[in-house]
Amino acid sequence: MERAAVRLRGVGKRFDGGVEAMRDLDLSVAPGEFVSIVGASGCGKSTLLRVIAGLVPGSEGTVEVHGEPVTGPREDVGLMFQRPALLPWKTSLENVLLPIRVRRRITHDDVREAMRLLTLFDLEGFEHGFPSQLSGGMRQRVALARLMMTGAGVRLLDEPFGAVDELTRETLNLHLLRVHERTASATVLVTHTISEAVLMSDRVIVMTSRPGTVAAEVPIPLERPRSPEMAYSQRFQELALTVRRALGPSGSEGGRPS
Ligand SMILES: Nc1ncnc2c1ncn2[C@@H]1O[C@H](COP(=O)(O)OP(=O)(O)OP(=O)(O)O)[C@@H](O)[C@H]1O
After folding, report:
1. CATH architecture of 1-76+154-160+190-220+230-250
2. Is 78 a pocket residue for ligand 1 (Cβ < 6 Å)?
3. Where in this chain does the record put each ABC transporter domain (predicted)?
């Protein structure tokens, strides 16, 4: 069997204050697979990503990336959050080059690759602009380019498009889809939007309310490349409904596995 890019077995997390965010969570993500996580607010989705990223330790269970136990942040794991966290005193190009700069000297090839990514994300002409000169959606695209620049085999995205308007979100989704379909990394996306989860993913994981564990897994057998128009098909609507039902009656309480 192919080695999983990410594998969690029996993972739990209890914070010092006593909050139990996760319990007995099993999850495996194959290389190149796109998995979305949906669940009620506060059910532990961000905690799950932070544990995979090695930013916080789990309290129980094992977490592995590419077959190795996670003991801290790793170079082969890229992260992106809702706020793009760009350095305001650096240009778009410099921000995209940052993950390389912290590791080694920048080469001409690195600059060429960063420029290529900025073009891919429709940021041509803004390479030397500063974050304050960009719109919110453009800043997210710079952050996406930076995530891609790392070439990480595992990408973790925590509600990356939560703070932008609907149309911008659609464009950003398309960008992420295109990049994923070109350079497939194992990707875990936390989102509150069911249609986004279905459009992007090979599999949607529905979490229970806190302490979060896996309530349901919904495979998404739609063909790739995906396009936003697919969201209007009956097949898509059925899949979205399956995810919605697994979330439980109110949407604010995750369904418990029976
Ligand atoms: N550093 C921390 N210390 C103590 N408790 C924490 C910490 N981080 C998160 N929690 C708690 O763990 C629980 C899960 O939080 P988490 O942010 O993982 O949920 P979430 O599903 O991502 O929520 P949302 O969808 O609202 O972003 C919450 O009750 C939260 O208050």
Report:
1. 3-Layer(aba) Sandwich (3.40)
2. no
3. 6-234
Task: State whether the beta carbon of 61 lies less than 6 angstroms from ligand 1.
Answer: no
44 Cα to the center of ligand 1, angstroms? 5
209 Cα–ligand 1 center, Å:
11
Q: Where on the phi/psi map is residue 238: left (φ > 0), alpha (ψ -120 to 50), or beta?
A: alpha
For the chain, which residues make up each domain, given as ranges?
1-76+154-160+190-220+230-250
Residue 195 near ligand 1, beta carbon < 6 Å: no
The DSSP secondary structure of 6-69, one letter per residue, reads EEEEEEEEE-TTS-EEEEEEEEEE-TT-EEEEE--TTSSHHHHHHHHTTSS--SEEEEEETTEE
pTM, two decimals, is 0.90
